[in-house]
Amino acid sequence: MNGETEHYFTQHPTSELNTYFVSYNFGKYSFRLKTADGVFSKRGVDFGSDLLIRTVASESPPESLLDIGCGYGVIGISLSKIFECKAVLCDINERAVQLAKENAAGTKAEVLQSNGLENIEGKFDMIVTNPPIRAGKGVYHGWFSVSPEYLNDGGRLYTVIQKKQGAPSAITHLKGIFSECEVIKRDKGYYIIKCTK
Q: What is the C-alpha separation between 185 and 109, in angstroms, rounded?
C-alpha cells in the first residue's frame, strides 16, 4: 500500500515519514503536537476528537483513563492534563505510538502499542475513543464488547461517532453491553455516547 491508499489502522505504515506540527487549545491549556503521514488527522485536530475532549472535560474527573486508538495522542494527553490524572494511550499503528510518546513527554500519560485492548492491563475509571471507522465495525464494536472488563465499577466509556458513519448501530450494540448508555452531545452529525458500568 502506498501513502495515498494506506489507512491509519495499520501496524507498520509504509508511507514516507513526513512530520508536521499542529496546535490544539482548550481553555488555559495549549498543546503543540507532532504528527506525520500515516496517522489519522495529521494536519489538525479533527472535529470529532475536539468535540469528545470538550464534552468529556465537563464530566466528573477520573483518577485514571484509557484512550484506545489514540493516534498521535491528542485526546488522552489533553484529558490527562485537564483532569490531572494518569492515562494510558494505545494504538496499533507504530508510527502513531512513537508520535504519541513524544507528545506525552512531561505528562502523566503512558503510551503502548496494542491492537485494541490486547496489551492493556488493569482497570480504569474512564475509557475514551474516537474509533477507527475505516477499519470497520468488527474492529471497534469488538473494543466496545470487551471494554467493561477494563472499567472499574461505575467507570465510564465515551466515544464519538458520526450518525452517517454508524452511530445508531453503535448505540444499539453498546446498549447490549452496558446497563446505562446515552447520547450526551450532538453537533454537526457527531454523537458523543456515554456508557456507564
A: 26
Rounded to two decimals, what is the model's pTM?
0.91
C-alpha cell at 161: 461517532
CATH code assigned to 46-196: 3.40.50.150
Torsion of CA 133, 137, 139, 142, to 10 degrees: 130
For the chain, which residues make up each domain, given as ranges?
Answer: 46-196
The CA-CA-CA angle for residues 79, 82, 88, to 5°, reads 35
Tens place of pLDDT per residue across the chain (197 aa): 233 334 445 556 555 678 889 999 998 999 999 998 878 776 779 999 999 999 999 999 999 999 999 999 999 999 999 999 999 999 999 999 999 999 999 899 999 999 999 999 999 999 999 998 888 899 999 999 999 999 999 999 999 999 999 999 999 999 999 999 999 999 999 999 999 99
Q: Evaluate whether 148 touches 117 at the Cβ level (below 8 Å).
A: no
Report how far residue 113's alpha carbon sits from residue 115's, in angstroms, rounded to the nearest whole number.
7
